[in-house]
Structures are given as structure tokens and as C-alpha cells.
Amino acid sequence: MASNRTSELRDMSDDELATRLAEAREELFNLRFQHVTGQLDNYARLGQLRRDIARIETLLRESEIAAAEAAEAEADAEWQAANEARRARVAASRGAAQNEGETSG
After folding, report:
1. CATH, range 2-104
2. Residue pair 17/56 in contact by the 8 Å Cβ criterion
3. Is-contact 64 18, C-beta < 8 A?
4. Phi then psi for 91, rounded to 5 degrees?
5. Which residues, other chains included, contact 59 with Cβ-Cβ below 8 Å and sequence gap of 6+?
């Protein structure tokens, strides 16, 4: 049953997950209030909601990490391209300086 819930959550966008998280937190707050006042009938629902909140937070964190890794990979690729261009300019200027030395000497 948990895998069905998790796969259902994985299919949601980050915005939908954030909405679901807010709803679950609100429901958990209400259930805690009912528990304190002695009106709560289904105590197991508290644990279910806590686990659901943890699942949603985990999925949001996974997507956050994936986005950060993608941004880091993109920045690395840009850095490598800039570094290659710099090396090419240095090699070209060294070659030009070497050619000038051969022609004037």
C-alpha cells in the first residue's frame, strides 16, 4: 500500500506535492487538536499522516537535489568550455610569439 502511495506521489509535480504537504500538515494539526480534546476516533491516522508528510518531504528534497546537481553539471560544463577557450588563446599567443621570434632572429 505504501508503494502505491509513493508511486502516486512521484507522479506529481513539485507544486502539487507542496499543496499536498500543506494539506497533510493542516490535517495533522486538526487531528492533534482532536486528540487533545478527546474527540479523535482513529489514532492510527496520526501515524499515517506523519509518514505521508515524511514521504512528501523526501520527494521534494530528492527533486531539489536533482535540480542542484543539474545546475552544478551545467556550471561545470560552462567552466570547462571557458577553460578550453582560455587554453586555446594561450597556446595561440605562444605560437604567435614563437613565430615572431623565428622571423626576426
Report:
1. 1.10.287.310
2. yes
3. no
4. -65, -40
5. 6, 9, 10, 17
